[in-house]
Amino acid sequence: MENYDAKVIGEFVNIGIGKDLKIKELAELVKEIIGFKGKIIWDTSRPDGIPRKLLDVSRIKALGWEPKIELEEGIKRTYEWYVGNAEQKSSLSPFYNPNRENHANPNFYQSLV
Hints:
Elements: H1 6-9, H2 23-34, H3 58-62, H4 71-85, H5 106-110
């Protein structure tokens, strides 16, 4: 992949898992991964948005690219990295407060709801 040029493959290439996922399913997955015990509240007075959020990944797959990790594992790794780095990089967290205990603890965010 590192040898391809935008002139050859196009300026934009979608990268994704090639599977459809509802926003509600994604929210529930993130909730489970971070251990959030609160309730997700949906504003049903608003439109649902586009019915499908599926990326066409055929161009990048034709170049031989395949995802190396599943979405759930990627979210877990990203969250673990974020929690491990939030103390060192306060700009990563809009809720960071060095005077508050457990700000990098997943349960901390529940106290903000």
